[in-house]
Automatic annotation (TrEMBL):
Protein name: 10-formyltetrahydrofolate dehydrogenase
InterPro entries, sorted: 10_FTHF_DH, ACP-like_sf, Ald_DH/histidinol_DH, Ald_DH_C, Ald_DH_CS_CYS, Ald_DH_CS_GLU, Ald_DH_N, Aldehyde_DH_dom
Reaction it catalyzes: (6R)-10-formyltetrahydrofolate + NADP(+) + H2O = (6S)-5,6,7,8-tetrahydrofolate + CO2 + NADPH + H(+)
Annotated catalytic residues: 114, 680, 714
Annotated positions binding (6R)-10-formyltetrahydrofolate: 96-98, 150
Single GO biological process annotation from the record: one-carbon metabolic process
Swiss-Prot/TrEMBL site (Essential for catalytic activity) positions: 150
EC number(s) from the headed UniProt entry: 1.5.1.6
All residue ranges annotated as the Carrier domain in the record: 328-402
GO cellular component: a single term: cytoplasm
Length: 911
């Protein structure tokens, strides 16, 4: 519900671009009255998006070439503006100088969007300079408009972290664009309610940099460290582009990366860079240019004579265009592409039309990629448009993308067809054994339930002990006799990379399946559940051909000599059992290193979340994995799980789940033939917040630690220890922020908190909270099932929790924050309390004292320690617990050791 407005706003929107158009739509959807849209003149026959959407909704549109001339307002334009009767101006993306007479005219004045955290980076190139300066944080400001100097009072600000390879486009797409639109609407609501602040900008930290449109500003200075060069180039990518001179030819540079490979520089052709003392190398991956710190920066794309090409092709003769023969079905795609281009460019399109020469900008690239994703279900990247800007070339690119993966193999299965999240889903519901989808031998099935409304998504075949035996037999044959045993490690890596590409091409479908099957918020599913899965496959594909043994100097058997060396070999058939909180990610964490090591796999997904594992099986077949290498057997734990753990031909079991079930797996692994076991089990991870910590940061850190993925997170901060000096302030702020969380449909992009995974777990959380209240803990927020359809549970906060209480000792695995107060006298005391729990999966500390942080990280008994952050896992960093939280590692190089065996070979010669 929207707050009641204390005054009626009659809004004039002054701006341009898709951003301004989306702000217009957002304001209309929230019931605001828009009396006029002032935008820029047409470019050729191409109207600005703001003009188009305003016109479609019957709002008067004024296309203003300029508002003033020689510093003086143009009276005709100003009078035209005043006649619309606006009492408030909104400037969402305004590149023109608006006279103060217009800014100050309406009763409620004017607010403006600026893509930086003012007062830093005032001026027209703020995002570019955010990246060029290497800022770790980016963001935007909505401020009370001034005379174009960006110095007006601040209404609100939002920020985000800058990632190492962010560009202007990625920052816009990920944060500045979507969050900026929502924030503009929020700011208008605040003005309407009379609650909008006017915070004067401080002069401390203020900066105003020149426009990057000047060519002299955009030339690369090579006498700098690699990081500075990388920041400069990415700050100008994709527009207007940093430039240099290579072999006397002017070149624009794009897709910058710092060269981090530990191996020697790649082989290639040496070229001269103007102003660079050392020569660069044109190689298969781009152009590698040295910096003054001894490191290198690599550029994957360049523009020469206005044409974008792979940097690896610099100096080479242009390749002849490959003409592809279209099928009748593919012929029907061309008119669709032409219509999309025509709508974006507002001009006629033929085979020679150049996207950018026709007036397209970087935001139009985003629109093109998104529209084709929706219309053709094709996953393009921005680079595909830059590399194929001519319509005929672009059509070939799209057709080849659509063909990708389909030529390898067709996969048949009993499909479930759904239309969800504005897309058509098609996925298997059978077991995947020996490269084929098959029904369970006893035809048993189990319901897959959507936790959002408790409806049945579909019925999935349920594996019996016999089915598991067939899957293990197929995996054993593939390992000992099949193609998998014959191909090289490098060929295995190629298959893994192709699978990762297919997962990326289908990431929206996978994320949607994850949302409806597990209740994960779609945006989180897309970024973490699916995004990290893709990263995992690519990371371990890189390890596949680097599993090397070593030579060992041993004592010779005189007069003979000896040579001793080790071999790293796969174990054989591996059984994997994964949980329901991150269905695809847990599959990937375990299966990717397992296959990189050369093993074959039988995996049992969680009974309540099998859908992404089955879609993954389909993609593995399309990628060309030989039959039997990957087998997926959905089923129950007592039947399929137990059969897999106890099977004599399974040489290793990898399990993630509860400690109680982990102990059963251990017993199964020791009965009959011995097998290796790795266990990632439960947790009750302590998060310690010391009194010197920034309380606002500590609140954000603990909320992420507890409520991330609805609390269904093995490393969740199961108990938050807060020093007494800041305890009351922390509790007040964390309650205030938790109340702001939006609970709702996980497919809704505004949702923060989706439903719990399944009904039994929801009932466990209710009982957990009841137990906490009975033992005397103070419930200050939540604790109940939400009064709405679906398996929704309120984000919950307990205080006054004592060490002996049940909720202080046992894992909730849900959105329940358990807060304990402590007096800071001796850090050893709080470490002792944290270590007294039998779990040892993760821990965290929030403090500004590096000595306390390092001491805590040394003494705390957990496999992962977070300092001033939480939930920050990475595919290259090993992950696993101590004590009752299990043993063995996922991720990083250490994960490979879980799926390899070391063989020592000793040879005698001579004598």
């Amino acid at each position: 519900m929207h707050s009641r407005k204390e005054s009626t706003l009659k809004i004039a929107i002054i701006g341009q671009s898709t951003f301004a158009a989306e702000v217009y739509r957002q304001l209309r959807s929230k019931g605001h009255s828009i009396v006029a849209a002032f935008t820029v003149p047409d470019v050729g026959r191409r109207e600005d998006p703001l003009a188009l959407c305003a016109k479609d909704n019957g709002t008067p549109v004024f296309k203003v070439k300029a508002w003033q001339e020689k510093g003086m307002p143009l009276r005709e334009i100003v009078d035209q503006y005043k006649d619309v009767g606006a009492n408030f101006n909104v400037l969402p993306f305004c590149t023109q100088f608006i006279p103060m007479e217009v800014i100050d005219f309406p009763e409620h004045r004017s607010i403006c969007y600026h893509p930086s955290i003012l007062p830093k980076h005032r001026g027209v190139s703020s995002i570019n300079w955010t990246l060029i300066n290497g800022d770790k944080t980016a963001g935007f400001t909505i401020f009370w408009a001034d005379d174009g100097l960006d110095t007006g009072p601040i209404l609100l600000q939002r920020s985000c972290d800058v990632e190492e390879n962010d560009t202007v486009d990625t920052l816009y797409n990920r944060f500045l664009y979507p969050e900026g639109i929502k924030a503009m609407a929020e700011a208008v609501d605040m003005v309407a309610a009379g609650k909008a602040p006017k915070i004067p900008q401080p002069e401390q930290g203020a900066s105003f940099e020149p426009s990057v449109r000047k060519k002299s500003v955009r030339k690369v200075n090579w006498d700098q460290p690699s990081t500075a060069i990388h920041n400069f180039v990415r700050g100008l990518d994709s527009s207007p582009g940093a430039w240099t001179v290579i072999e006397n030819k002017e070149v624009n540079l794009y897709s910058s990366k710092i060269w981090t490979l530990s191996c020697a520089k790649p082989e290639g052709e040496s070229v001269e860079i103007e102003g660079c003392p050392n020569r660069a190398i044109v190689h298969s991956g781009g152009i590698l240019i040295p910096a003054n710190d001894g490191k290198h920066v690599n550029f994957e794309r360049i523009s020469v004579d206005g044409r974008m090409i792979p940097a690896a092709n610099f100096g080479k003769k242009d390749e002849e265009k490959v003409s592809i023969q279209l099928t009748p079905e593919e012929e029907k795609i061309i008119p669709v592409l032409k219509t999309v281009w025509k709508n974006i460019l507002s001009t006629e399109v033929d085979h020679s039309t150049h996207f950018f020469d026709s007036g397209a900008r970087s935001m139009d690239v985003v629109r093109l990629v998104e529209e084709l994703k929706e219309k053709l279900k094709v996953q393009l990247k921005n680079e595909d448009v830059f590399m194929s800007p001519v319509f005929e070339e672009f059509c070939s690119t799209v057709i080849l993308k659509l063909r990708h993966g389909d030529a390898q193999k067709s996969v048949t299965f009993d499909a479930v067809d759904l239309h969800v999240n504005n897309m058509d889903l098609k996925f298997p519901k059978q077991l995947f054994i020996d490269g084929s989808f098959v029904n369970a031998e006893n035809k048993n099935s189990m319901e897959s339930i959507n936790p959002t409304d408790e409806s049945v998504i579909c019925e999935v075949q349920c594996a019996s002990k016999t089915d598991v035996g067939l899957a293990v037999a197929a995996a054993k044959k593939a390992f000992e006799e099949g193609e998998w045993s014959k191909i090289s490690n490098r060929e295995r890596a190629t298959l893994m990379l192709k699978l990762a590409d297919l997962m990326e091409a289908n990431q929206q479908e996978l994320a949607t399946l994850e949302s409806i099957d597990s209740g994960a918020v779609y945006s989180l599913a897309l970024k973490t559940h699916i995004g990290m899965s893709i990263e995992t496959w690519r990371y371990f594909a890189g390890w596949a051909d680097k599993l090397q043994g070593s030579t060992i100097p041993i004592t010779h058997a005189r007069p003979s000599r000896n040579l001793s060396f080790t071999r790293k070999e796969p174990i054989g058939v591996v059984g994997l059992i994964v949980p329901w909180n991150y269905p695809l990610m847990m599959l990937s964490w375990k299966m990717a290193p397992c296959l990189a090591a050369g093993n074959t796999v039988v995996i049992k997904p969680a009974e309540v979340t099998p859908l992404t594992a089955l879609k993954f099986a389909e993609l593995s077949a399309l990628a060309g994995f030989p039959p039997g290498v990957i087998n997926v057997v959905p089923g129950t734990g007592p039947v399929a799980g137990a059969a897999l753990a106890e099977h004599a031909d399974v040489r290793k079991v990898g399990f993630t789940g509860s400690t109680a079930v982990g102990k059963l797996i251990m017993r199964g692994g020791s009965s009959g033939k011995l097998k290796r076991v790795s266990l990632e089990l439960g947790g009750k991870s302590p998060l310690v917040i010391l009194g010197d910590a920034d309380v606002s940061k500590a609140v954000r850190m603990s909320m992420g630690g507890v409520f991330f993925n609805k609390g269904e997170n093995c490393i969740a901060a199961g108990r938050v220890f807060v020093e007494s000096s800041i305890h009351d302030d922390f509790v007040r702020k964390v309650v205030e922020e938790t109340k702001k969380m939006v609970i709702g449909n996980p497919l809704d992009r505004s949702t923060d908190h989706g439903p719990q995974n399944h009904k039994a777990h929801l009932e466990k959380l209710i009982a957990y909270c009841k137990k906490g209240r009975e033992e005397g803990a103070k419930l200050i927020l939540g604790g109940n099932r939400c009064d709405r359809p679906g398996l929704f549970f309120e984000p919950t906060i307990f205080t006054d929790v004592e060490d002996h209480m049940y909720i202080a000792r046992e894992e909730a695995f849900g959105p329940i924050m358990v807060i304990s107060k402590f007096d800071y006298r001796n850090i050893d005391d709080i470490i002792r309390r944290a270590n007294s729990n039998e779990y040892g999966l993760a821990s965290g500390i929030c403090t500004n004292n590096i000595y306390r942080a390092l001491y805590f990280s040394e003494k705390i008994d957990s496999g992962t320690v977070f300092v001033n952050t939480y939930n920050k896992t990475d595919v290259s960093a090993p992950f696993g617990g101590f004590k009752e939280s299990g043993f063995g590692k996922d991720l990083g190089e250490e994960a490979l050791h879980e799926y390899l065996r070391i063989k020592t070979v000793t040879i005698e010669y001579g004598g």
